[in-house]
Design goal:
Order of helices and strands: HHH
Structural class: mainly alpha
Number of helices: 3
Low-confidence stretches: none
Radius of gyration: 12 Å
Strand content: under 5%
Helix content: 55-70%
Length: about 70
């Protein structure tokens, strides 16, 4: 298991906005935004949206990873 890394609060805020606007398709939208950033050679935004895509996938998972407190 690879631990989930969240770079900053903006990542969580953007993930929340995507969930509010796109619901179950939020991960797909994050992937689209990452692809658009890659196409425009914006590495920082590409990494930002890819991290959000991974975070959303992690939140959607049914199985628990790591320890439960």
């Amino acid at each position: 298991m690879v631990p989930m890394f969240i770079a900053d609060r903006d990542t969580l805020a953007d993930a929340t906005l995507l969930l509010d606007h796109f619901g179950p398709r939020a991960g797909e939208e994050a992937r689209n935004r990452a692809d658009a950033a890659r196409a425009s050679d914006n590495v920082l935004r590409f990494c930002h949206w890819r991290q959000i895509e991974r975070l959303l996938g992690h939140l959607e998972a049914r199985d628990v990873e790591g320890s439960i407190h």
